[in-house]
Amino acid sequence: MKRLSLLTLVLATTLTALSLPAQSQGLTREQVKMDRDSFLALMRWDELTGMWVLKSGMEPPKGVMSRAEVLEMRDQFLRMNVYDDTVGSWVPLKAPRNMSMLTREQVNMETLRFLMMYRYDESRNEWISRMR
């Protein structure tokens, strides 16, 4: 009998905790459905990347950079910096380098190293170090 009452208490607490986020914001069920519908109208799940991406022909909301712009920022960083193994960090170059002169393996290696060391922060619209 004690186990049943304890199980009931745990289930009630869990269900209450799950419903708190919507209640704490004061959102109604209709508002949540509208948010969901507007999100699904703009986005689709990409199985290859395991991420939500904008549907074809859709513009990102104001203030959000497009994927192409974010990738261009990354590519600009790679053109203007080179990783130095002796110091263990990226070193700025005096002049931009021509990435097309590198082999595919070199470009892939540098891109992977960059992605391991940096992540894109959407709230700040910039790449930030993962070391922070």
Topology:
Layout: H1 2-24, H2 29-42, E1 43-46, E2 51-54, H3 67-80, E3 81-84, E4 89-92, H4 104-117, E5 118-121, E6 126-129
Antiparallel strand pairs: 1-2, 3-4, 5-6
Question: Brief overview, please?
Answer:
By secondary structure, the protein is of the alpha+beta class.
Question: Would you mind describing this structure in some detail?
Answer:
The protein is an alpha+beta fold. It has 4 helices and 6 strands. The protein has a two-stranded antiparallel sheet. A two-stranded antiparallel sheet has the order 3-4. Strands 5-6 form a two-stranded antiparallel ribbon. The termini are far apart. Mean pLDDT is 80; it is low at 1-15.
> What ranges have pLDDT less than 50 throughout 5 or more consecutive residues?
1-15
The end-to-end distance, rounded to whole angstroms, is 51 Å
Helix content: 40-55%
Order of helices and strands: HHEEHEEHEE
Beta strand count: 6
Let me know the average pLDDT.
80
Structural class: alpha+beta
Number of helices: 4
Main-sheet strand order equals 1-2
Taking the sheet with the most strands, its summary is:
2 strands, antiparallel
Shape: elongated
Gyration radius (Cα, Å) is 23 Å
Beta content: 15-25%
